[in-house]
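Quick one, T. Sequence first:
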Amino acid sequence: MRTPIATGAVVLIAVGLTACGGGDGSTSSTAARAESQSEAAGQSTGADAKQQNGGEGGGKSGKKSGGSGGSSGEGSDGGSAADFVPKQHRDSGGGAQQYQVKGGDNSVQEFGSESDESELKAAATALHNFLDARAEGNWDAACQYMSEEMIKSFEKLAEASKQVDASSCGALLRGLTNPAAKASMKTEAEKTDVGSLRTEGDRSFLIYTVGGKTIYAMPMKNENGAWKVSGLTGTPLN
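Structure tokens:
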């Protein structure tokens, strides 16, 4: 059995892109591509964080967030988590079969089994809320829709770079996000259309398009009955 995207892969938007690109023309599987993207993005994040904070001596350190979202409003450009108002989105659904890529790596499209409509809606809502909050610059609200696994990965990255404010999850997310990505984050939030949730055990992937073009997969986690995103960007499937 082919192994789909590693659930714990952290693909960071600090490189300035949120949802773009397609297949790289290689014979590598989706999993290998996602892992290589994660490594490259992590390296770029460290460089970006240094540059944004004024080099080696810039930036400030702080205590770890230790939770899923700062409630104090620290690090929030668009208000605190309490200020975030979820938007209504309409998703087309239809299942993963519509996303099969002829001659391509369909390991995500064929992963596990199709979830029922209620689970698809719940997971899609979590993704939409995350994307909307991020597009608004409401970092604390965005953190509420991130898995604990993702937040811990963030903390480790900040600890290693020592250039990013880690006083809260919101401050950390803001520090790792390239301001140049604002326009593409807004487009992604407005045009994401979710069609499938594939699940096997505790691993799940939402499959969606942005503007009806490139197909993406976002790893998801169900934590105590609440769906959370386990990546900052989807991995292209075509």
